[in-house]
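Blinded run. Sample ID left blank on purpose so nobody reads anything into the name before looking at the predicted structure. Input follows.
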Amino acid sequence: MRLRPNILFITADQLRADALGCYGNPVIQTPHIDRLSERGVRFERMFAAYPVCAPNRASIVTGRYPSVHRLRSNGMRLPGAELTLMQVLRDRGYRTYGTGKMHFGPQWHFPPDGGPIINPDPSAAISPQPDDDQFPWYGFDRVCLTEDHRMGPYGDYLARHGYNVWDELHSASYPQHATVRSAFPEEHHQTTWITDRALETLRGHPAGHPFFLWVSYVHPHHPFNPPAPYDTMYDPADMPLPVWREDEVERWPQAYRIKFFAMEGGHEAVGMCDLADEDWQRIKAYYYGMTSQIDANVGRLVGALGERGQLENTVLVFTADHGENLGDHRLLFKGTTYDPVTRVPCILSWPGNPHPGETRDLLASSIDLMPTLLDLAGISLPQPSPVQGVSLVPSLADRGHRVRDALLIENQGPRRTVRTGDALLTWHGVGTRGELYDLAADPDCLTNLWDRPEAAARQPELLHLLIGLMAENVDPLPAREGPW
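Blinded prediction complete.
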């Protein structure tokens, strides 16, 4: 009997869709991911269910919105009772593995004074590696984990090779928009280490069982510090300038003005308002270098599957937890509801694909990935199902298939977004300016129509649509057991 297909699930952290050659970027070099797109199907409108790391990662593996699975912000923990993709696969005979960044729990302890983490204090960093008695961990048989601060197994590895983990900038270092060469050579770099651990896992996997392997890269998350030669792979002068318009700042919601003018503290308060064109170009060049390093390692993974004769029985997925502003709107990092942050790459290749190199343009969400992968593996969702996402498999056979006409995106605090084919609305709270964009006339979202007279009819229509989506997407469990 033929084994169920293996699943190699590859994610990058903070990778926007248009930073790949296969998504139309004319500058970046991503030949391995581009070849994966040529053999698979590329989704053009895949959006994060939440444009921040931990909540959306939990949505990927549960098929549920953050308001339902309860990991609603970085610094929170995914409840152990949540049913994950890994657990369902494991229950059906898969060996389940993970290498890299999972981020299902906090990375740092709060400092004693309650202030921001400024100095690299080892006592504040939490190792992501579970203890042996915690397995299976969220459905994983085995993991080898690392996070932004590199403590845990990777930090131990660096120490054995004579390096100090704190010599490298990390997600709590200042400044977060730094562009520097990594303190570690490519052979010992975190991206390489994650791939090396994945290759070891493949070599040790026993025949006779299908595997699920999640390879999760920390980059191209800020700060922007690739190793040589990727730090000089791109000339900043060749980088296209960000998309923005000066007067858009006047009509922003307050949350974006706070980011832009660094009006509050924290590790992302970097004074974006003071950055010049050459700063944005330099940042982009380093970000592209980090992305090209990931591409090279994707090539290593796919090559290893080919050498082992496993490529033809493996589902391959490449995606990201969310994107990156990267200077568009003169903003950096994540958290906004602009497409550069919410739209993520999603490439899906599977055994016997009769549609190589094709694209699909339906509105899709991170919550759809879990049911899609289970569908490709021939595994039904448990009943009653907790999953809110929808399998995208029917769209693979029928490029006209749609699963929804409007998309819900959650965000921090009260912020909620509805996105249709031609409009984007984000509610920022009572008494606060929100966002409304006409995507047909303004695809880059440079003119906020929130309180403009010309949007007087469209705004309540979209707000009612948003209310409907929020009301429909409450937790489907527990199931009703009787008439009363």
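Unblinding after everyone has recorded impressions. DSSP finds twelve helices and 15 strands in the chain.
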